[in-house]
Amino acid sequence: MKTIKHKVRVTIFITLASLMSTACMKEFLDLKRDKSQVIPRTIQDYQAIFENNTMNYYSSHLLGVIASDDYYVAAEQWQVLSNPIEKNGYIWADEVYQGTTVSDWNRAYEKILYANFVLEGVTGIDETPANKSLRDEVMGAAHYFRGVNFFLLAQLFCRQYDATTANEDLGLPLNTASNTNVRYKRASLSDTYNQIIYDLEKAGELLPHTMSLNTRPYRAAALGMLANVYLQMGDYSAALHYADEAITLAPQIFDYNSIDVSPSAPFPRYGRSNTEIIFYSHMTNAAILASSRLTIDSLLYESYDENDLRKQAYFSVNGERYTFKGSYSGISSFLFSGLTTPELLLVRAECHARLGNTGDGMADLNRLLSHRFRPEHFEPVADDISQSELLQLTLSERRKELVFRGRRWHDLKRFNKDEHLAVPLKRILDGTEYNLPIGSEKWVWPIPPDVISQGDIEQNPR
């Protein structure tokens, strides 16, 4: 058995290396599995495929972080960027990629390919009383990874979900088989979200209720992601339901009073011992987001109260310049993008605010903020807060809590649909102004040209 597991792991790493070295998506889709090498025969063998960190690392958030408004770079720093995606993405240029491999697209479909392969293999193993628990867990993990990655792709490469147009709007190629010879056209956005919800619901049914490792998904992760999906869709009742269920399973909040927030890396590496992390993942690093290059937006920095421990935990001050140090990865070059209990508290608080449940929303905010302020400086949200004030406060706390976790782009896209919340973006470099207006087609990233060149895939307007 150990030999078989070793073969699976080795081959998966070879596959990953092949994917990393490909110059175009065609090679990715044409990749063949060598069945003389890949011989998983047991559920444990299929589980081993998920144990190489591929599923936890390089999450597809990078384009959104590069393009969002939490930071800026000086013109001289921008000029020397060598990666065209970083340089062009920062100013929302018409031509973004310039022949460069698009990591956000390739990494997500790589994970989807693994998930499909595992689902097909484990489905072919008969369920028995002895293997049911592990069989359910591995299949649930595969559904989780597939659903999450379709969701992340949709936030970058599809329009914001709108129930009135979702049947006509373009979604994703829904690759649901591991046969890389099959070519998929873009489904509708409605079908794309139906697939995401189906996968996450299946994951919620199959995954265990507890998990000792935050690098493996469990039921709370699936329910929490469903809450995020429904929040993005504007279905606040459903988002509230799933956030509530997930928080019941994962109620822990990491108290910032229990750590020294002053070091350059205040949080434990890879999220170890961070009790509020439900599922750990981090993004690919990027030169433009290096602490030596980016500067935090001053209005964002100043929005934190002086007694808010996040201000010290998340940011470093260098003269008049603020940089980010607060990744839950514990490594400045890897931005944490996983799921936490506080994020779900903020989802639930927002849903309560939008649905008029001000008392419940206020309780969620107080619960979070009591773990972010020194006890002697914590002031609960006022009992007489109005519904609109509660919503504004919740969204402000959401931005402050989830800074540089890949959520800001998702939020900006959904805010585009609300005239009271929509935020146009602007950059200024050497006196030249670049704008991303509300409702612009540039809120949707182009499909990578190498994917378009295969045919049958419609490009997004730019």
TrEMBL record:
Give a yes or no for keyword Nucleotidyltransferase in this entry.
no
Q: Name the domain of life this protein comes from.
A: Bacteria
- The SusD-like N-terminal domain is annotated at 27-231
Which InterPro entries would you find in this protein's record? Answer: SusD-like_N (IPR033985), SusD_RagB_dom (IPR012944), TPR-like_helical_dom_sf (IPR011990), TPR_rpt (IPR019734)
A Gene Ontology cellular component where this protein is annotated is: cell outer membrane
Q: Where are the TPR repeats?
A: 220-253
Keywords recorded for this protein, A-Z: Cell outer membrane, Membrane, Signal, TPR repeat
What Gene3D superfamilies does the record tag this protein with?
A: 1.25.40.390
Q: Which Pfam families match?
A: SusD-like_3, SusD_RagB
Signal peptide feature range: 1-23
| Compartment(s) where it occurs, according to its Swiss-Prot or TrEMBL record | Cell outer membrane
Domain RagB/SusD span(s) in chain numbering: 343-461
Q: Mind telling me which residue stretches traverse the membrane in this protein? A: none
Q: Which family does it belong to?
A: Belongs to the SusD family.
- Name of the protein: SusD family protein
The organism of origin for this protein: Parapedobacter pyrenivorans
The taxonomy runs: Bacteria, Pseudomonadati, Bacteroidota, Sphingobacteriia, Sphingobacteriales
